[in-house]
Fold:
Amino acid sequence: MTRGGYGSKVHLMTDAGGLPLAVILTQGNRNECPVFDELLERTLLDTGGVAPQRLAADRGYSSDKLRAKIAALGIEPVIPYRKTEHVTDRPPLNEQAYKGRNVIERCVGKLKEMRRIGTRYESSLPITWRCSRWAPSSCICVH
Structure:
């Protein structure tokens, strides 16, 4: 498994303002859904158990089981359906709320502007997490 190389994927959750709350680094060929539970758990720990009103994610996190789990926590899931899913019997996507998902893209863009994170000199999760955790507020990477 490559962690931090070309074949890695960063799973990131931010608050509404774009501040990173939780990050998980996995293999690039791994599906997003199995990682979501741990990502949400880390986020809830970081926020003191306060759950958001809505949770927006991309199509990679689209599954009925995941939507049900999010709804059971009292959170509105804002996840578009995959092109291959039959969605005639499911509630429509809240398009207006989904527009707010660009906060994640902007956060990733800002993190990539920081050369140390964008080029992934550190290929281990703890160091990368510390970099991304403090990068938005102080632009200092702590080893």
The longest helix spans residues 33-46. Residues 8-138 form a domain with the Nucleotidyltransferase; domain 5 fold (CATH 3.30.420).
